[in-house]
Amino acid sequence: MSSFPISEACPADAVPPGRIGYDISADQLLLHTLQSEEAFDALCSAGVLVSDPSRIDPFLVDAYDWLYRQMAARLTTAGDGAIWLWAQITRRDLVDSCGHSIGQVLLTCKVPRERVLLSHYGDWHSVLNKFPHIPELRGESDEDNTACMNRRYDDFVARLKAAGAWGAGIAAWPTDLRADVEQGWESIFDPGNYGRFESWQATMHTLRAEDIVKAVRIRR
Fold first, then answer.
1. Residue 128 included in any domain
2. Which InterPro entries match (predicted)?
3. Structural domain range at position 12
4. 84-98: per-residue pLDDT in tens?
5. According to DSSP H, which parts of 49-174 are helical?
6. Is 72 found in the same domain as 114?
7. SS3 110
8. pTM for the predicted model, two decimal places
9. What is the dihedral of CA 206, 78, 126, 22, to 10 degrees?
10. CA-to-CA distance for 150 and 155, rounded, in angstroms?
C-alpha cells in the first residue's frame, strides 16, 4: 500500500495554484514527473521505478549514452537508464504537459540532490541534435552570438566532412572534435551559466516510492 496520497484531477487542477516552489540549489529537490499508469503501478508494486534504455529512439542513442556517462560520473547511484523529471518549470507549462498526458499520473517528488543530475532543458537540445553548444556570453548582443554560433557550426561541419564523418554517429567523429564538443556540452549542468527563470530537467537512475509526496491521475 502506498504511503502517499493518490487522487484524480483534470489538468488545470492537478497542479495547485500559485508558485510551485522549486529551488534547484536545495539539498532536497522538489521534482515533478508524468508517468504512465503502467509505470506507476510498477512503482507501487516494486517500490522502485527504473527506465528501459532499449526504448530510446535510435537517433537519440548517442545523446543518451553521453548523458548516462555523465550520470555515472556525477551521481552517487548507478543504473543503466534515466528517469526524467522537471526540476523547474512554470506552472502553466506543467499544466500544459498534464493536458497532453491524459491517463497518466503526475508525481510530486522530493529527492536528495546527490541522486539527481540537473540539466538545462533548452540547451539539452544541442546534445540531442549532436551540435556544438555555444553559450550566450553575458553582455553579448544577439548579432554577435549568432555570428559566433555560425562560425562554430561551420567549423564543426567542415571538420566532420574532412574526416568523412558527416552524418555519422559520435563514435566516428575525430577524437579531438568529439572531446571539444562533449566538453562544451557539460556547461548545461551548471546553473551559474544561466538566469533565474530557466527550465531545468532532472535525471535519476531510479525513482523510489519513498521519494513520492503525492500522485495525481490525470483525467479529462
1. no
2. DUF3841 (IPR024211)
3. 6-121+199-218
4. 999 999 999 999 999
5. 61-74, 91-99, 124-128, 142-162
6. yes
7. strand
8. 0.92
9. 50
10. 8
